[in-house]
Specification:
Chain lengths: 206, 480
């Protein structure tokens, strides 16, 4: 996993509310016990003309050649709601997305993003709408910068918009930290806590 | 060591108590390291977590506190084995079996009489208990909050963290009290209540929060109904949902295989009796519903918040303008093949489905069977009942419910998640209209372009008989 600091890339607007993880990666597209190889199934229900086919539906934003190099996706309210399947983030990352800008995120999806080096950036609804409009109408403003160091989003010709992000999530992304490694360093404290707890709640320790 | 005197302790919520009891340490930035008591896995997301952990050379820290089942990908056809309609389904099943075996995690495998949907078997086995923290890579883990546990859904990577360390790094969630007052009308269930609340609050209405369901309507609700209600907290984008454990919970769990027994039970019970929100405990958010006015609910769109009373008509945009964007509304109507003003009850259905972690427990099946007894599914309607666990299936068969379902024209399946979504490859047909006891009416979730209408088991049973969406209150028990 690479650190996420500053990313300047094409942003693709898909500003619908409540985009669920079934839409991001349908069940039928999760074909193997692996975290990779999921890009082809990303948004399969919207991206292809028919279920099971690979014939592109040209009306869908990710089939527009203007967004062929998109690395940033712009979404609406409650992005990533529904199933906890981490495949949704793996599919987005496999396709090339490194940041999602949305009006809000569903909590499990947001945590999954951070664990996979994808930055979930929450902006006010009108800022998201303005950004999506700028990207869609002006090819010169299609390149968007997500700066996780300064915590700003900027498109050419507009003032940078600040955003706030959970400090722990930000640190994990900036330093590409593996939380399991960090927690394993706390092993003595966990062991001591469990030992005390075992006295109080022995039925927990099967 | 003495504990603080009661009147010096500030009043705490149930969720506060669960949180504090599991707080190993403060990690800074408002994040706590929380001890995890129980981890549940299934073959859809558990196999990949176990595989990844093994590849990283990280052992499972407390394998005896983890459990695994087969529910998501497995077929539910009678006589099933490891192969599924989806050619690669077998790989999920075998990888999970191998992973669980290597890690020393107890597996409720195919053929095991304890197998079933993860959230159905956990209470059956006494895996979930009041006061435990429980996680599972599955968004509907909140179902188990009905037993007074702090139970929440996580991703695969978080699952690896929980398996490797017996902890998770979590920010203390905001809390929300949803008080339910009054009495449900006959024929109105926990499912209708859940859809009513989601329609009122929206699918992001409790985003990131722990909901506590309280009030006299909760005390009066049976355990099946409480589980259905907590289950659909996932559809409010909640962190989880909890209900204070009462006699109903304790009576249910007593004597279950992994529940404490003897002196341990007595000690546990003493602790569990304190698991209530103190008077005056602070909730960041509070809301209340009078449940006496709730009708059987059915969804008309592609989001669980797009739900209305069964005797209502498909809303015009003006009626939902505050909650839906024009684009979302138009897309939903177009996808569902509906026009504004159409009565829900006029809609002919192609299929009826009873099952899923929302509504597949013995009480759900009994209530549906009562309506199906002596009646027939309408010609041309494909009707399927999938018990939530092998245990539920056995119990139903002992009571003769299977014969009622079969005589009515329902298929009677082995337990699993089945056609709630088509993970194992089985689905409803192109653009078919399905009335379903499941939790998500998302586009193409139950099949290609499938039009799903969420409802209670009663409404699904009544609709299967009528061949169209039908109000169960107009259909008494026992046909002729």
């Amino acid at each position: 996993m690479a650190p996420f600091t500053v990313l300047t890339a094409v942003a693709a607007p898909l500003v619908r509310d409540n985009i669920d993880t079934d839409a991001i990666i349908p069940s039928r597209e999760i074909k193997s016990v692996a975290k990779s190889g999921l890009a082809a199934g990303l948004f399969a229900g919207w991206r292809y003309r028919e279920i099971g086919s690979r014939e592109p539906d040209l009306a869908f934003v990710l089939n527009d050649p203007a967004y062929a190099d998109a690395r940033i996706l712009i979404g609406g309210v409650n992005f990533g709601c529904g199933s906890s399947r981490e495949h949704a983030v793996w599919a987005l990352a496999d396709f090339g997305f490194r940041a999602i800008i949305a009006k809000s995120f569903s909590p499990i999806f947001q945590a999954n993003c951070v664990r996979n080096g994808v930055a979930p950036v929450e902006l006010a609804a009108d800022a998201v709408d303005a950004l999506a409009r700028a990207v869609a109408t002006d090819p010169a403003r299609r390149q968007v910068t997500v700066d996780l160091v300064a915590c700003t989003v900027a498109a050419p010709g507009t003032a940078a918009t600040p955003f706030s992000i959970d400090p722990q999530a930000r640190r994990m992304l900036l330093e590409a930290l593996d939380p399991i490694d960090l927690t394993l360093e706390l092993e003595p404290r966990i062991a001591a806590f469990r030992e005390r707890d075992r006295q109080a709640r022995p039925w927990i320790y099967l | 060591m003495t504990s603080p005197v009661d009147n010096e302790t500030p009043p705490r919520t149930l969720a506060d108590k669960l949180w504090d009891e599991h707080r190993v340490c403060d990690l800074g930035d408002g994040v706590d390291l929380i001890l995890i008591d129980r981890i549940l896995l299934h073959e859809r997301t558990g196999g990949v977590a176990l595989q990844s952990l093994e590849a990283a050379g990280r052992p499972v820290r407390a394998p005896r506190q983890a459990f695994c089942t087969m529910d998501h990908v497995v077929d539910t056809f009678p006589g099933r084995g490891d192969s599924t309609l989806m050619p690669t389904g077998r790989a999920f099943i075998t990888a999970t079996r191998e992973g669980a075996l290597n890690a020393g995690i107890k597996l409720f495998d195919l053929g095991d009489d304890r197998q079933g949907i993860v959230h159905v078997i956990s209470p059956e086995q006494g895996v979930v208990l009041p006061g435990v923290t429980l996680v599972c890579p599955d968004s509907h883990t909140c179902t188990q909050g009905a037993f007074g546990a702090l139970a929440w859904g996580i991703g695969s990577t978080e699952t690896e963290h929980a398996l490797a360390t017996s902890t998770l790094r979590v920010r203390r969630p905001e809390q929300m009290l949803i008080e339910l007052r009054g009495r449900l009308d006959p024929g109105v269930t926990g499912k209708d209540l859940a859809l009513h609340i989601i329609a009122a609050l929206s699918v992001s209405g409790a985003r990131g929060r722990v909901i506590e369901f309280g009030g006299d309507a909760i005390s009066a609700l049976d355990l099946d109904g409480r589980q259905t209600l907590c289950n659909m907290a996932a559809e409010l984008a909640a962190f989880s949902a909890v209900i204070a454990p009462d006699d109903l919970v304790l009576d249910y769990l007593h004597g279950r295989p992994f529940a404490p027994s003897g002196a341990d039970w007595d000690r546990a019970e003493t602790r569990w009796r304190t698991l209530v929100s103190d008077d005056g405990a602070a909730f960041a958010h509070k809301t209340a519903f009078e449940v006496g006015t709730v009708s059987p609910m059915v969804t008309w769109g592609v989001s669980p918040q797009q739900a209305i009373a069964i005797d209502a008509r498909v809303p015009g945009y003006g009626e939902v303008a505050g909650r839906e964007t024009r684009d979302a509304y138009d897309r939903a109507l177009g996808y569902m093949g509906l026009a504004p003003g159409e009565p829900l009850e006029s809609l002919a259905i192609d299929a009826a489905f009873i099952g899923s972690c929302t509504n597949s427990r013995i009480g759900d099946l009994r209530r549906a069977a009562r309506l199906l007894d002596g009646r027939k599914v309408a010609p041309g309607v494909k009707a399927i009942c999938v018990p939530g666990s092998s245990g539920v299936k056995r119990q139903a068969e002992a009571e003769g419910l299977d014969r009622i379902f079969l005589a009515a024209g329902f298929e009677w399946r082995e337990s699993g998640c089945s056609m709630c979504f088509f993970a194992g490859g089985e689905s409803f047909g192109l653009r078919e209209r399905v009335i379903s006891t499941t939790n998500r009416n998302f586009e193409s979730r139950q099949g290609p372009q499938t039009r799903s209408h969420l409802a209670s088991p009663e409404t699904v049973a009544a609709s299967a008989v009528a061949g169209r969406i039908a109000d169960p209150r107009r259909l008494g028990a026992h046909g002729g």
